Amino acid sequence: MPRTVRDALAELADDLQHVRITPAAEIRARGRRRTLRNRAAVAGSALLVAVAAATGTVLAGREPSALPVATGCAAPVDLTLPDSFAVPVRVIDRPADASRAEQVAADLRGRSVDARVELTAGPELPGRAVGVIRYGPQGIGEALMVDVLLLGQAEKVFVPARAGETVDLEIGPGFQQLATRTEVNQGLAAIRVHDMPHEC
Predict the structure, then answer these.
(1) Strand partners of residue 168
(2) Residue 63 and residue 50: Cα distance in Å, rounded?
């Protein structure tokens, strides 16, 4: 005689009583430890590269000032992710639609982003463009956090000569809204900082 759905659910409930569910705090702590390990690995790699470069300079008998500068970058590349969304963002306001930039900045501030609006003359982005994120060597992690809030739909432009962590965000006509909390969590779980363009 075939089992009913109720019997199958009762059996499943019995099986699940013995399954240990990991507390959310433990999962978050595990994620933090993984992040710290990744940061330590990146820092260790950077240190090894610096030591190798210094050793090569000494062995070659060249002055450090004679070494070529890496593609005109204003600062060393920083591939660490910020601890929160409290990153500095300058929302570019085009005169064609001033209210849109103000609204986006207010929404970003509601997500703890340090957003301010700056009026800049220039052409409007094409009709379906969601936005453009511009950042420098020290703002790669910050730009990635902003990209998560825009569901990864904005164009990302790396500016090697740009100093500081501030990210420029120009909103296009295709923008509708920031990511929901669920979408942000999914985006954070999938991000890889090395995927962000950084040519230095």
Answers:
(1) 90, 134
(2) 15
Report how far apart, in Å, the C-alpha atoms of 166 and of each of 33, 39, 184 are.
Answer: 27, 21, 21
131-135 and 88-93 beta bridge pairing: unpaired
Answer whether 148's CB lies under 8 Å from 185's CB: no
| pLDDT, tens only, 80-92 | 999 999 999 999 8
Please state, as a whole number, how many other Cβ atoms lie within 10 Å of the Cβ of residue 124: 13
Do the domain assignments include residue 73? no
Instruction: Say which residues have a Cβ less than 8 Å from residue 168's Cβ, sequence separation at least 6.
Output: 89, 90, 92, 132, 133, 134, 135
Q: Which domain holds residue 133?
A: 88-195
Same domain, 99 and 56: no
Nearest to 81 by CA among 147, 127, 145, 131: 145
Q: Looking at the predicted structure, is the pLDDT value of residue 66 above 50?
A: no
Q: What angle do CA 76, 82, 85 make, to 5 degrees?
A: 135
Which amino acid type is present at position 196? M
Q: Please check whether residue 200 lies inside any domain of the structure.
A: no
pLDDT digits (tens, 9 = 90+) for 137-147: 999 999 999 99
Whole-Å CA distances, 48 to 52, 54, 62, 126, 137: 6, 10, 20, 44, 19
The pair of structure tokens assigned to 76 is 């060393």
